[in-house]
Amino acid sequence: MRVRRARARCLGVILTLGAVLLLSSRAVAQAEIDRSRRSAIVRSIETAAPAVVSINVVQLEAQRLQSPFSRDFWDLFHTPAPRYRLRERQIDSVGSGFFFDDKGHIVTNYHVIEGAESVASVGLPDGRMLEVDLVGVDERTDIAVLRAKGDNLPYLPLGDSDALVRGEWAIAIGNPFGVLIQDPEPSVSVGVVSANHRRVSRRVGRGERLYQDLIQTDAAINPGNSGGPLVNARGEAIGVNTMIFSPSGGSVGLGFAIPINRVKRVAAEIIQYGRRRDPWAGFRVEDLTALRADLRRELGIGVDEGAFVVNILTDCPAYDAGLRPGDIILDMNGKSVCTASDIDFGLWGLFVGDIAELEVDRKGTGRTIRFKIRELEE
Q1: CATH entry, 279-375, from 3.50.50.60, 2.30.42.10, 2.40.160.20, 3.10.450.50
Q2: What is the DSSP string of 290-337?
Q3: Of 103, 121, 186, 303, which has the most beta carbons under 10 Å away?
Q4: Residue 142 is a catalytic residue
Q5: 226 an active-site residue?
């Protein structure tokens, strides 16, 4: 009997220990799952999302309206009817932006506010609606800076877009289809940095906007995302979401962002001067391939690609440094020059005070020409 009772007690202890161990292992597994849920991506979004805003702009549109009564009335007198009248219609639209410093400055795309009668307000994820002033814009870079009026404003830490690694996490945060979704919380989409230093055809920017050295990502970017941040796994802004390539108008995994290092410099110029100062070198180029073969031989041109210097002002930085008409520019600041647009892209990527270094060919002889970029005066 005693043996049976001892065995029973042992069995009870074993079962109890087994249950405790089972529950403990389940708790450990659940804790591991909970920890895995709070990934670097989740923490990054928690850091960045409070500083992302929706930008509400107002546009006035002329609308032609036909009176339903005008035709019958004027037909009685066989007189041409004034069938249309004009009125202004208010259109509210929404884009994205984000606070990028502790002074209330907001960066967004210029095309988000382009043509707007006013920027009515910005909405924060915490529900606040704040009045803003327009500080300035740079149309060619497609950047605009606003300043909000408010206290205790969050802002997004800025990363280093020059240090991006292809394949690293990229998170697009913004307000896609914000007019349809009346909710202050921004949405997120996750992908990777697909490529860096992408340059887009000038036709895409309507001839004015120079989209160069862009970050390509497969994180979904949709209408309304423009101006919002592209964020890395640390919660730092690495770019400003700007455009997509899509046959349907929706995301197909080809999104592009302006790198944050360029945005920093453009925004600093706008804040200090109220505008982006125009970089100026004082010369004009054309595609070398546009010259006839016989003219190339006559000019002693022995290269096949480059930008041909057509004319140059004698009081400009490039002339002072030795650039002359007829020179062929082969390289600018370490980047190959194949067409005239390469020079346009390159110069606009520089800022007043930067150094431009050109590798040129002059009748078969190579030269290096360095000069400082000046501001284009009115």
Answers
A1: 2.30.42.10
A2: GS-HHHHHHHT---SSSEEEEEE-TTSHHHHTT--TT-EEEEETTEE-
A3: 186
A4: yes
A5: yes
Q: How far is 358 from 363, CA to CA, in rounded Å?
A: 16
Give the pLDDT confidence of 67-102 residue by residue, as tens digits: 554 444 444 445 555 555 545 555 566 789 999 999
44-78 burial: b if 16+ Cβ within 10 Å, else e: bbebbbbbbbbbbbebeeeeeeeeeeeeeeeeeee
CA–CA separation, 200 and 345 (whole Å): 10
Catalytic residue among 161, 187, 226, 251: 226
CATH 2.40.10.10 domain position(s) in the chain: 49-148, 161-273
**Tokens 């670097």, located at residue:** 40
Token reading at 239: 């770019």
Given 142, 213, 342, 361, which residue is catalytic?
142
DSSP 192-243: EEEEEEE---GGGGTTT----SEEEE-S---TT-TTPEEE-TTS-EEEEEEE
Residue 182, classed as helix, strand or coil, is: coil
Say whether 118 is catalytic: no
